[in-house]
Amino acid sequence: MAQKQEEEEKVRLDKWLWAARFYKTRALAKAAIESGKVHHRGERCKPGKEPRVGDEFQIRTGFDEKTIVVQALSIVRRGAPEAQALYVETDASIAKRENAAAMRKAGAMGVTTDGKPSKKQRRDLFKFRGGGGDE
C-alpha cells in the first residue's frame, strides 16, 4: 500500500505544469522546459524532473517571468481555481511582473517611432544603405 501511495506522489514536471495551467498542452510544457524557459535553482530542468512541495521554479511565458513555489502535486488538469492552489507566486515575482507590465504599457521598452517614414525619408534611407536609386 505504501508503494502505491509513493507512486501517486511522483509527478513529471511537464505534467505538473500542464495540470497547474501554465501551458495548454503537455507537449507545449515539454517544449518550454527543453528550450530553457523553466529553471530550478538557477539551472535548466528536464521534463522528467519530479517537483516536490516547497520547490521554487522560474517560469518564462511570453514577456512575463514568474517565480513560483510548489504547494501541492497533481497530474489531473482541473479548473483554474484548483490549479492555482497547486502553487504560490512569490511577492518579489509579482512586483517585478507588474513593474515590467507598466513599463511595457508606458512604451519604455522596445523601439518607438513616429510612424511610417515619408517618401523622402525612404529615399534617404535607401541612399544611405548604398542602394542605387533613381538618380
Give the SSE layout.
Blueprint: H1 2-9, H2 13-19, H3 26-34, E1 38-40, E2 43-44, E3 56-61, E4 64-70, H4 80-84, E5 87-89, H5 91-106, H6 119-128
Antiparallel strand pairs: 1-2, 1-3, 3-4, 4-5
Helix pairs in contact: 2-3
Could you describe the 3D structure shown?
The protein has 135 residues and is an alpha+beta fold. The protein has one domain: Structural Genomics Hypothetical 15.5 Kd Protein In mrcA-pckA Intergenic Region, Chain A, CATH 3.10.290. It contains six helices and five strands; from the N terminus they run αααββββαβαα. A five-stranded antiparallel beta sheet has the order 2-1-3-4-5. A hairpin with a 2-residue loop joins β1 (38-40) and β2. α2 crosses α3 (26-34). The longest helix is centred in the last third of the chain and has 16 residues, at 91-106. It is elongated, with a radius of gyration of 23 Å. The termini are far apart.
